[in-house]
Structures
1.
Amino acid sequence: MNDELTLYVAAFVDELVKAGVRHAVISPGSRSTPLAIGMAEHREMNIHLHIDERSAAFFALGMAKAERKPVALLCTSGTAVANYFPAIVEAYYSRVPLIVLTADRPHELRDVGAPQAIDQFHIFGKYAKWFVEMALPESSDEMLRYARVMAARAAAVATLAPQGPVHLNFPLREPLVPVITEQTWEQVKAEAPSCIEVTIGQKTLADEQFRQLYEQLSHIEKGWIVCGDLDKPGFAEAVTGLAETFGYPILADPLSQLRSGIHAKDWIIECYDAILKDETIAQHLLPEVVIRFGAMPVSKPLSLTLKRDPSIMQIVVDGGDGWREPTYMASRMVYCEEMEFCKRLVQYGSERGVSEWAKLWRDVNELARKVLLRAKHEDSLFEGKVFIELAELLPEQSLLFVGNSMPIRDADTFFMVNDKQIRVLANRGANGIDGVVSSALGASAVAEPLVLVIGDLSFYHDLNGLLAAKLHQLNATIIVMNNNGGGIFSFLPQANYRTHFETLFGTPTNLRFEHVVRMYDGQYYEATTWNEFREYVQQSVHNKGLHVIELCTSREENVGKHRFLWNIVSQEIAQFLAKRGK
Amino acid sequence: MNDELTLYVAAFVDELVKAGVRHAVISPGSRSTPLAIGMAEHREMNIHLHIDERSAAFFALGMAKAERKPVALLCTSGTAVANYFPAIVEAYYSRVPLIVLTADRPHELRDVGAPQAIDQFHIFGKYAKWFVEMALPESSDEMLRYARVMAARAAAVATLAPQGPVHLNFPLREPLVPVITEQTWEQVKAEAPSCIEVTIGQKTLADEQFRQLYEQLSHIEKGWIVCGDLDKPGFAEAVTGLAETFGYPILADPLSQLRSGIHAKDWIIECYDAILKDETIAQHLLPEVVIRFGAMPVSKPLSLTLKRDPSIMQIVVDGGDGWREPTYMASRMVYCEEMEFCKRLVQYGSERGVSEWAKLWRDVNELARKVLLRAKHEDSLFEGKVFIELAELLPEQSLLFVGNSMPIRDADTFFMVNDKQIRVLANRGANGIDGVVSSALGASAVAEPLVLVIGDLSFYHDLNGLLAAKLHQLNATIIVMNNNGGGIFSFLPQANYRTHFETLFGTPTNLRFEHVVRMYDGQYYEATTWNEFREYVQQSVHNKGLHVIELCTSREENVGKHRFLWNIVSQEIAQFLAKRGK
């Protein structure tokens, strides 16, 4: 009864589970039947169906991010595979482990015009860390062991730093329906037991290298620690230890996971974007050394500041073997696991305490924060205020997912340091506005409560993602900042080009999302006041199901209010520095 | 004022227009600003905005299909590009000319973690017929000429057989806003006039090769001409001429464009799928020779028949240099433009007239058609009946777009020969259920009236595509066959696997599309009877705007009724053959 297929698939799936893969996102298809049934029949594998493969892949990405573990993806042959591509690109750049399993026609049905047969070899190009054309199903001892080892290796390669997607392509012949019963699992465990365990070490430096680096830094008073997107449990404690040792303030991107949490916040500077907007002010606050962790932060003023001055010694620490250094000003690349780097470096001396330099940064940060928090008293639906409100409204242990384009910039400006345990995630590998709904919902399947803040174009782009909430009864709150189009362009030079501005850049869609939210059985709210907003958020995060809260805002007003606040920040800091200089 | 950029972009766009590219589908973005403005400012270029790049690319594909001309696509850097991939794959396999223009970060912002920068080199792999990394904008005479030649060449390469997508990647530096005025066009026409004209010849055989082939065929009485997906004006007349010369019936797939039109229909056989389902019957009706044009037809019984008997001489004619021969039974591949092949071959002899063989095929086809048309009297919402109704309801010059999975199979079975001028299109390159709404709407932008028949999963997959109808006031009728899930699996062996059948294969979504149709300002109708269906279709095709007609059908009933009719066809033909054999 189709034994070759059954045992081969069972061995593969069983080993995936052994390797710690407990979630698979599956899209329906015929060719993928063997693996779909294999995963559905395995007791320890949780399967999540999703019709649209593009959304499915982002759903898996969000889940893998939230879980910090590889998640499997499965689809049939043809353009289904190509629909995975945007999420694969994002996973590659944001270092998220995915195990992509694609069914394929067998060799004799390839490149001969057979239906739904496309060339899937290396279809994701460099974006798959590892591509394997799997052998046709066989059940010899050797090939069952092969199936197991490939599953274990897929999980290992996806997990090795830098984490990322791997792609296994399965040629499958008819008949496609395996006969998997309880006995199958026992049989496969007996005949082809799990055989390999994978242990992954960490990249570190030699004692001497750490000592030299410590010596060098110990003579420099003015330093910054800059932390971009980095989500490793324990990093907050490690990097604040580093800050205390050298007396360097930490410029912390919202995705550094340093603005929230139970670690000490004394060293965290969150308003550097607003502070550094004014070039003259930035000149007064320049460091001599920068130690940078994680991806390049969202802040453009920070990038420009680092780019302007070649005399700043910039040390980029990357545990993932990358070259995330768009300023071309780095003087040193250090390939070392980030926590290891922090913990080892502090062992060579004692804490330096709060210097004048550190105090100066704390003062200007406090000043900037006070100004920005004035937005709290704004009655109109100013987009930036959402993050000020959320810092208060979000329950402990929340996951805050932030959309690209404007929301992540507003989070950068307005999501201030707080003592809650809030994880902040975003798709910052390629910064796309695509797949954000699905990524957030994927995260919500393994981490609750989840709140997503997203713009209207990005929400529209992945409306299909909402189906997962309906199919899998997910609990999530989505806040849509609807400024009817591409808000970010009002901040860019394109805004001065009037002729076709609305057609090419503003791109208003005039969509009323209430309809589509209803279709997916979600609760829809339009918040027209901040009181309503607060009420709806509280109601949503404490109740089951999908909740969508829409705020209709104005692109023009929005850019004006941002600029107004940023100007005050610059003015007040300039005054402060002038006084201090006297 | 940014002259280098302005002139370079203007020269490129102007030459695209000169090369016959009159439509560009643009998605909003910052990096793509120069080209977007260049295209928007050119009087002879029609621009179509679409937010979701996946839908945008399918929209361009549909438009290029309907126009039979290359259409340009433009998006910004990052995952936007990756979203084009499914449509690029489809365009490659279905031989549709697309000119894909992607904006990219300049060299110094690549692979260094700069935002929205991904590696776009050869990102579509083999699916782009031609990839070019364009030079940075310069306005020397030489580089303006370069820009012009690249545009002309892109259109040429996309158009050369086999037609397909080409990809030009533009590195662009800030400032990104060109200053294009009426003077710009005059200046660019004066300083860098259009310089190259492209003439494309056709592949043909030598006289001697045609003569030999004619000789060979003239001795064979039992032949089929098999026509799959092929959409060339004039082919119908050419191939029916061939049929008359040799007395071979034409087995015509719905996408062969042979079932409708003003050409002679005497030779067209449209019920071969139902006829050949019974292997014993097929044995009685086997040809000695098959001349095959276009893609492999949809019909599985036809493929199986061709595959079973190696003694059938199968000649595959392909004007596009492909190898569309999944049966492995072809004895001859002929690389020659299809119409040329037909027209030249008939010159060597006179018409053979209607032989016994041809008459036999006409008789069984008539018989099968009569049985299948009994579905016309079906009161319940049987899916197959839709195409019987449409053959009557569709106005002259309609474009009928058919979704994949079940609709194309039902069109194959139930869309009978008629004398209207109806073009039938579908995405049969990779047979995906993705992007079908957008492909149809793209076609509707250049060809009306358009009617799309699509299943619920496929409709859901590309709901985003509906935005184009709203943004661009398109006129289109969409008929959604809503059987709440994947109807095709009920016809496959998976149907016998009960445990997780609905979860993995049936995949009901329980979506009520009325909501989403409203969001896109469409008219929604649910047809619960055939009278209503007829009324709604007539209303829709004669009125402006987007119209969606939903038929809620049953997967189980559907498979039963199909099988019932097919069985009668087999029985009646078996009786007919038995009588005839006496």
Note: The radius of gyration of chain B is 25 Å.
2.
Amino acid sequence: MGDLIDQLRTGLPAEAVLTDPDVTASYAADMASFCERGAPAVVVLPRTVEQVRHVMRTATALRVPVVPQGARTGLSGAANAIDGCVVLSLVKMDRVLEIDPVERIAVVEPGVVNAVLSRAVAEHGLYYPPDPSSWEQCTIGGNIGTASGGLCCVKYGVTAEYVLGLDVVLADGRLLTTGRRTAKGVAGYDLTRLFVGSEGSLGIVVRAVLALKPAPPAQLALAAEFPSVAAACEAVRSIMARGHAPSLLELMDATTVRAVNSLTHMGLPETTEALLLAAFDTPAPAADLAAVAELCRAAGATEAVPAEDAAESELLLQARRMSLPALERLRPATMIDDVCVPRSRLAEMLDGTAAIAREHGLTIGVVAHAGDGNTHPVVCFDPADPDETRRARDSFDAIMALGLELGGTITGEHGVGLLKKDWLVREAGPVAMELQRGIKAVFDPLGLLNPGKVLDPGLDPDLGPGEVRDPAAGGAGE
Amino acid sequence: MGDLIDQLRTGLPAEAVLTDPDVTASYAADMASFCERGAPAVVVLPRTVEQVRHVMRTATALRVPVVPQGARTGLSGAANAIDGCVVLSLVKMDRVLEIDPVERIAVVEPGVVNAVLSRAVAEHGLYYPPDPSSWEQCTIGGNIGTASGGLCCVKYGVTAEYVLGLDVVLADGRLLTTGRRTAKGVAGYDLTRLFVGSEGSLGIVVRAVLALKPAPPAQLALAAEFPSVAAACEAVRSIMARGHAPSLLELMDATTVRAVNSLTHMGLPETTEALLLAAFDTPAPAADLAAVAELCRAAGATEAVPAEDAAESELLLQARRMSLPALERLRPATMIDDVCVPRSRLAEMLDGTAAIAREHGLTIGVVAHAGDGNTHPVVCFDPADPDETRRARDSFDAIMALGLELGGTITGEHGVGLLKKDWLVREAGPVAMELQRGIKAVFDPLGLLNPGKVLDPGLDPDLGPGEVRDPAAGGAGE
């Protein structure tokens, strides 16, 4: 370990190498529950590509695993440290290098905070859509690692659709450039897209070329109250089937509505079983909202009221944004799931989740990116109570099983990390797993990059600290 | 070879196995110039996934290379046969299996013709944007193989953005399912996107889940005449910088305009140096066109006239669509390039292409998806004249060199195939090439899938027919 620190220091300034265990322990985990975390040997905070290359060369020479990190707002444990690892935090590489309104691109370092980029491009009349809930904290590098989504996705898609090209430091320290800065380009296999969502297991993203959109008009929202979740889902179905393109279409269940009221005293309608929020950023949003209000009423909404102006709209969206903090206050801990199902199965997913909550004797509030079929059941529990904790974990798994049964996926936007590794195997099946492990072995033959995450079987428990699997044994390819 | 045919026939109906050399020769090549073609041992036309699996199992057992084909409208030689291969034509797998307006997806077999799908989804009020020039002939499988684009891309992007999930028969006959039918999904590495643009070198796509958009309003177009290419490109720059979202933004140079007039007697303005076509499919296209006309005039347009109605619009677009047929009449043969540069370098690209035409003593007409910076210089030549042919080939390469020098890519939407293999190495560089070859080896360890295309070094010339490289020698990984 002395070797490791000494060698890291030959290419990094003193302040970029943290070894105080109290300090390094604070880098041990992201925001996921139920995920093991280890004790890092060292945390490094490089500021340049060359420094990142030095870190990876050192890690490869000494066979030390590396865990890349952004703001650690992830919800799957992908950023959790493992014992004896180098935590490679990219947060100091936080420059917006370029914003170009003609090319409609931004070039950024990985540590740029999502909201910082969003505001910077807005000054040029441009729009970077991906807007995870944690957008004021999370970094673009982390967003790329997990292929993050947000409220915007129903109209604008996820992070993957905005990544045109990358500079990546490979496990052995070599620098790879993928993709392009042009609007189109199909030369060779799409390595860029392979890195998006790979959770730091294939390489370290050190620069990204991102696509931007022209800034749309400010969005205008409506809220609709429904006497049942099924009725709200029927409204979602008909809104999407009629070809509407809302800029958001969100659902809050009764548990969530009451939790938000309790936290904010916003006075949301407590008698509603489901609150649907729709917004449009079209040139004539009032007309679109009127059409959607009509569809909501036809589906059984008891109220469907468009906001009068941007301020009232913002208040409605504020209620949605407070959902997670509000649910987090119900019990000492929460666990946020991320199952995405076909839109037409949304009601079954929500009703099934309610049944799972009852069966497990738990409070589970649900917020959903309803227009995408992407639900976030929030399982509320007390980690001090072993039985409740077990039920929480069981219900979390039951929710994923239900999602797969309904033709959905175990993760719409949060990624696999540690939390859903076993579930990835069930969703992807053995053929896809074999190919994915083969790809991992091509990029990271020594198994040093974020080992044990996504699909990696993890470090061999028989190996001591600093040792890795013998790559010749083909551990990543079975 | 008798073995091969016999074994293929055990799992395919008689009419699906073509061996008459006159017939199989007609499957030897796509529409690219300057690409070698071989003589297939056999052409198979499966109608089911199980039949495709049988073909691949047979090919693997006998170590026979397989060249997958759609409509052979490709422009890079990716579908060209190699001596002794199985040509695997997917054109008989041409069913649209499902169109779902709520999920906004279509599920199709690979042989569905692009225009057939487009018309089928239009009946449901939906829109499948990718619209290559060959859309009346080309298949969705071929579009996926080359990540095809079209006129729509400036607003709607390329094929890659519409492929949500795939069923793929692997080289050894195993069936892989990738991706999802949900709006979002980030479980594991993005294998779906890896197949898009892989030109049949990683597996045989036998089913695709495609994303659809709500059908937009009919588009309305304008034509603007410019006294110079530079002025037209300045208009493109300012249209994009101002945040406009045209549904197409196309440029025709003077050579192309005159060629179209000569073919169609459309009476396009022969004195113009560049004709720019813009269209909008927004709710109020006339207002958008008026704004764009103003920007065109500010950039130096001598005329900028919006169409009065859809019929007049259609006539303008017809002129654009006739560009390739018109240029093809100028000389006995043409060679179509596909260089995409940053929008702000478009004028340099076009002026540089004109200079290359002068230097090589050739006619090169240019049509461009100007809004994307994607140019299609069409090199016109007489293949019966060896010197002119040599100059044509040289100019083609000079155009790609210029594209790379301007920060562009050698292919915006046509792919690499045989034609641009050497250029892919220059664009991607050695690190990316090594990784791409590693991926190829994971999916196709025996090197049987479309060998010699994209990045594969090709069959070892020392091997006899039906033999392949020894995979243990790692031929695909050097």
Note: The first strand of chain A starts at residue 17 and ends at 18.
